[in-house]
Amino acid sequence: MKHFTQTLHFWQSRPLTHTPGGFRLPAFPHFSLSAFQRFSLVILGLSILPAFSPSLRAARIKDLTLVEGGRDNQLVGYGLVVGLAGDGDSTSISVLRSVANALQRFGLVVPYDQIKVKNAASVMVTADIGAFLRPGARIDLVVASLGDAKSLQGGVLLQTPLLGADGRVYAVAQGPVAIGGFLGGTGGPGGSTVQKNHPTVGTISNGAIVEREIPTTFVGPQGLHLLLRDPDFTSAARMAKAINAVYPGTSDAQDPATVAVRLPAEFKGHEVDYVSAVGAIEMAPDSVARIVINERTGTIVATSTVRISQVAISHGSLTITVTSSQGVSQPGAFSSGTTTVVQGTNTAVDEVKGGFKVVDELPSIERLAAAMNALGVSTREMTAIFQTLKRSGALQAELIIN
Questions:
Q1: Closest CA to 202 of 153, 163, 158, 159
Q2: pTM for this predicted structure
Q3: What is the reported pLDDT for 139?
Q4: Residue 344 pLDDT
Q5: How far apart are CA 287 and CA 365, in angstroms?
Q6: Res 117: pLDDT
Q7: What digits encode the pLDDT tens for the residues 129-167?
Q8: Which residue from 74, 77, 73 is spatially nearest to 159, judged by alpha carbons?
Q9: 3-class SS at 101?
Q10: How far apart are CA 47 and CA 57, in angstroms?
Q11: Residue 29 and residue 2: Cα distance in Å, rounded?
Q12: Residue 195, number of CB atoms within 10 A of its CB
């Protein structure tokens, strides 16, 4: 403690010195500190650090909103994947006509009823084209089999136009398909197969080239509108307040999903700079009290605002097991009887003693989780408890079960 007091006096007596590179701290005095004293200084520094750090719940506005007018658009197209080594579509009319049309583009006229191909598959190609993309930019693709192809492994998508909702071509797709899996052993001994992932759906990274720009306008005469990804009255009000703290009188929350932002005079002609500056402002969004349960995977996710009123919980389980068994009845010696198979049934009942626990009003999700764990219940049993708590009115949160 003596060395720490000397250190504080040293910092108070030595002012900061200014250099061309900025302010420079004075050299630290050389004290002989024990391991315990060094550990104490580290703990003191860690305890002081949170007082100077920003709120951990704060997030940038650009991560919470979308700029109205800067939305994505969906594209779709019909194409042909070739090179499937016998895993393509069977002799369906759609794939045969597609192959015939593809050959006709290169000057080969072949009737579709004379074509037999197993190396090609008809597919649907989908993509999302982002805002502000100019011709020449590339976007990712998702390719899905339309017929009865077994796998798209090793296939190549032929040139495919991608259409928007208005029927116009906005991009052209082509390239090798990656499925992230495989299908092997088809037609082997006993008909056994080995499949990994889903082999009839694949992706092509940067597989489409944008050919037409989608006009977008993000700043109008009245400014711009920020659209919250998760609409909420409190979050919208906090966002407008945070913007007004930096640019006074420029923002209003119109509804839970929209915050109107006006362009200050100093940013006229520099709209991109203003959108960038507003997006960098940090605020603490509000979260709705919600518990989401996925019964298929046993996953439970709850927000920190979940509350539960004082309630008593008793939980037990009853397991009934019924098994069938077979026995053999042998006839007695020197008798005229025959050996007979006898069917038997065994029934077992296992009832777990239920525990009755009083759960006080919980100010946080941590104590709620501790109460559930104290009952020693499984994830599936927690789902039943949450459902019962919701029906009883003791759970002040939205319960979503998928």
A1: 153
A2: 0.62
A3: 95
A4: 66
A5: 13
A6: 78
A7: 988 899 999 999 999 998 888 888 889 999 999 999 999
A8: 77
A9: helix
A10: 19
A11: 14
A12: 14
